[in-house]
Known about the structure:
Elements: E1 24-27, E2 41-52, E3 62-69, H1 70-74, E4 85-89, E5 99-106, E6 116-124, E7 134-143, E8 145-152, E9 161-172, H2 176-192, H3 197-208, H4 213-216, H5 224-231
Antiparallel strand pairs: 1-9, 2-5, 2-9, 3-4, 3-6, 6-7, 8-9
Helix pairs in contact: 2-3
Amino acid sequence: xxxxxxxxxxxxxxxxxxxxxxxTLPLSHLxxxxxxxxxxxxxxxxxxxxxxDHGIPAEHLRCKAYxxxxxxxxxxxxxxxxxxxxxxxxxxxxxxxxAIAEIPIGAPNVSAAEPWAIxxxxxxxxxxxxxxxxxxxxxxxxxxxxxxxVTLTSDLKGRYGTAMLEVLRLVPRTAVSALQAAAGEMxxxxxxxxxxxxxxxxxIFGIRELGPDTISSRAWALPSDIMKLELGG
Length: 233
């Protein structure tokens, strides 16, 4: 079995890597198509402001999230759970409860860099069959995702809802240089492959999160229209 790359940027095991600490860089746009060898990551999930039909309280339902490679989540005959992380979300807090989770994912395999996604489901177990899951609502979204209002869908007639969802990549700030190098390589490959339009725009937004010098130091490789995106033109 492969032991994976040596860890070059790791978390302090005695610290909780909140998205708001100075040692943590939260990424809300840079996808898992950009990875650096040996950089440990965590996924931060915040699911809040859940509004369901007929005023059903979200905390009266069970909630789970599945996060991992987009292909494993949405392609094929069904989710490939062997490649996904399953997280039970618990709603806490008064009149407007929210569910927050932080999941260590270690140092992802750079050779398997690909976009990630998340699926959240709200469900109940009917009294007649406690081993069954009756899914009432669900949402599928890309990862990472800045705090966004999402629509909850359902296969059950008359079920609908909305919620606020935030899914962030958390990396140690000591990993910025390694991620900048990986992002620069991804940018070079995207330009050579002729990637443009919204796909290039999303890549630029993600790379910006690593600091302004990530792209400016590679300006020679960028067409003028892409530089306008970087400079806000």
